[in-house]
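1st attempt posting a full record on here, be nice pls
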Amino acid sequence: MTDISKAVANLQAAQQRAMAIRPKVGGFPYLAETLRSAGVSKSTWSLPSCESRYDTLEGPVVIQGTSLISGAADVPRFDQDALIAAIRRDQSGDADFPEFLASAWRAGVIGWEVDLNERTVTYYGCGDEEYVERYPAVEIVS
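the predicted structure (as tokens):
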């Protein structure tokens, strides 16, 4: 059995802490702040593969999730209104994360980048489209 690196262990511990404290409604800023305080500066997601990369003080970590598609597929046209609606459903607690991923893909999102220091999420379409959203600072009480 392979030992996990300090970077992976630190990221997994931060993710577990975040999931334990984040509220169902408006929980993303709590996740982001917990990761930032654990030394994560950036998170990059790719769709439809659901691969995520975390840039951490301990080194980069990649997580391969379950792909949204199998085989070949057309990339949906970027639809900013549908993306914003998917974000709002997620923020309101009306969708879980897998539902958000599927909705973002259907809205033509091929990936996004979370800048944990600037508190921004930039969503990308394959035609150089992008939509940037800021999220609020929160205080994590230990």
